[in-house]
Amino acid sequence: MVKKKPFVLRLKPEMMNALEKWSADEFRSVNGQIEWILNRALREAGRMKEGDRMKEVDTGTSDEPENKE
Length: 69
Fold this sequence. Notes:
Oligomer: single chain
Structural class: mainly alpha
Number of strands: 0
Largest sheet: none
């Protein structure tokens, strides 16, 4: 089991609403969606290698969005 470090994140209501909608569209929790966004951004910025990403079993997140077609 991956140990996670909790922290407080303050967001504007509009941003939270957008995150809630996006995560629901992707069948993820808001926390899982934020982790997915951060993982992707860190890899794209070269700050984290592909093999270094967090284990996704605990949050149910996936690296790629679900295909809804």
